[in-house]
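[agent] plan:
  1. take the single chain provided in the ticket
  2. run structure prediction with default settings
  3. attach structure tokens to the ticket
  4. add a short note for the reviewer (M.T.)
[agent] executing step 1
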Amino acid sequence: MKQPLKYGVNPHQGRAFISADTDALSILNGSPGYINFLDALTAWQLVMELSRSTGKAAAASFKHVSPAGAAIAKPLTDPFRQAQFLTVKDLSPVATAYARARGGDRMCSFGDVLAVSETVDESLARLLRSEVSDLIIAPGYEPRALEILQAKKGGAFAVLQMDPAYEAPELETRELFGFRFEQERNSTPISADLFDGAPDDVVETMLVATTALKYAQSNSVCVAYDGQVIGMGAGQQSRIHCTRLACDKADKWMLQYHPRVQELAFKPGLKKPEKANVVDQFLLSSELSDSERQDLADNLMSVPEPITLQEKLDWVKGFDGLCLSSDAYIPFRDNIDRAARSHVRYIAHPGGSVADEVVRQACRQYGIGLLETGLRCFLH
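[agent] step 2 finished; step 3 output follows
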């Protein structure tokens, strides 16, 4: 295949196209751009690997070549539906996988590229119809689902189909500034035996977290809960900044279930992205400027009392089984201290640092289960 593109990464970068010695990828609708394809092909690898390792339908929400969210199919609870502004209850497994993937971070999933491991059915298509999204890649589409998606965004929504039997060449090449790089593709799977000794539910959640890291720009740290990414800190130069970012996002995700958030009364007419922004503002309401507080008040029927720091710390302790995974070794105990504040109970990292024993001692101090996988999964 050889597909011309409107432009490259930026509008002033012309002469752009995508090509490959395969017909495994088909464009069923729309005109995907350069970055769209980067997101789609990376997200596709994530969901297919995650589906193989867990045996469940998998979905990923991608932005700027890193996952904003990833998840496997599980039934949705009523509090989750409330937090995600969902009204439909009879979602199919593949639709729940995407609802959970996008629900890991609605702010970052705005205008996403999504990938799913299963055929897209009408349930998922109807769910996606009300979301702000740019592209979907999947192994197939039911006829009615394809009709719904082809009508999205006035007919401009991009729909890609990928042959699930396609295997990439073992060697991959890349050019940068006139220099060509070549290496073996990172085909080492994220498998359950990396987390040997952990409870089954922890293994499943670690598979989600660590597979997401494999396809996130490094450095990266991921927090996951119940088979769903709830905090991704990617592309940071310092690992503690990755950890802070991932844990801050995880805290916000858990606080979506706080009674004061679940009971927020939005002004009529607000769309889902606007509601997500209001929730984000409310969770930071004690830190807002006067104009920001007024903006918050303009979007709510009434503004509840802010949730205090101590209330937030107490609330996250109600979520048991949080898992944190790091794409490379954790070099200092400050990462463990920050993870403990978000009530992380299991941590996985490759190990191999001179500070390994310090990290082990910190985990023992907090009662955190530590899994040393021996596998680094950088992506650059």
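[agent] step 4 note for reviewer: The longest strand covers residues 66-72.
[agent] ticket updated
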